[in-house]
Design goal:
Elements: E1 21-22, E2 25-26, E3 30-31, E4 39-44, E5 50-53, E6 62-67, E7 73-76, E8 83-87, E9 92-97, E10 102-107
Parallel strand pairs: 1-4, 2-4, 3-5, 4-6, 5-7
Antiparallel strand pairs: 6-9, 7-8, 9-10
């Protein structure tokens, strides 16, 4: 989808996103909602890979998810969908929605 206008928007001061960072420690499947922070630093200490479920698709939404624990996490589409990103310790991914699907844009 293209932008509706070519007018640029400038921010000439620091940008603060209150409540944008969540640091959950998970022991079972963890489901994100649109009240969840944009930045998820997830610790999995269960001893085996666990799943983070994305919410339903919505145009222009994104989540940054980092695996901070010793055990891997799989980031899945909503409602039991397929794995979009498999993250091991220290890895992070940017996931975005275009309103019909979730995509992994970046993994580091």
């Amino acid at each position: 989808m293209a932008y509706a206008s070519d007018i640029l928007f400038s921010i000439d001061t620091a940008f603060q996103q209150k409540g944008a960072v969540d640091t959950p420690t998970i022991t079972s499947t963890h489901t994100l909602t649109y009240k969840s922070g944009t930045y998820q630093i997830v610790t999995n200490g269960s001893g085996s890979p666990l799943t983070v479920m994305l919410p339903s698709v919505k145009t222009g939404v994104s989540f940054w998810i980092k695996c901070a624990g010793a055990d891997a996490i799989n980031v899945n589409e909503p409602a039991g969908g397929s794995t979009i990103s498999a993250l091991t310790t220290g890895q992070a991914a940017l996931l975005v929605s275009d309103g019909s699907s979730w995509y992994q844009v970046l993994k580091a």
